[in-house]
Amino acid sequence: MNKLLNSKSASHLPSLSAATSIADHFASFFTDKISKLRLSLANNSSYTSPHSPSPPVAPPDFSVVKPTSESEVSKILFNSPNKQSDSDPIPTWLLQECASVIIPTITNIVNLSLSSGHFHPLFKQSVVYPPYKIHPRQ
Hints:
By secondary structure, this protein is mainly α. The chain has a domain at 70-124. It is 43% helix and 0% strand. The protein contains 4 helices and no strands. Helix 2 (70-79) packs across helix 4 (99-116). The longest helix is centred in the first third of the chain and has 25 residues, at 19-43. The chain is elongated. It starts with 18 loop residues before the first helix and ends in a 22-residue tail after the last helix. 1% of the residues are buried.
């Protein structure tokens, strides 16, 4: 634009010889800025960071949840699709085949978890795969 308008613009860029001093000045500017911010936050005792961990909360009371029955567990098991995730050690079809033997134990585990409010850490994990994208031909 300057060439078209026949005007000369002053260079706003520093000379190459001053690059290290500019970098030092830039770094000290932000270091000082952070130091001043920390000092002001330390002086303001009423400030609480939104990023600080919240205080520990007691687990919810599951006493209002009624225990499940073997028939409910059986219904869920037999209505489950015949597939499982990578974190499942036993295939669904095998659980369905052994249902008469294993349902009382599964029901007991579910009821103990609900009554205590504690769940095994493995039940809190999952394996997630991103969906495949199909690109249309162009």
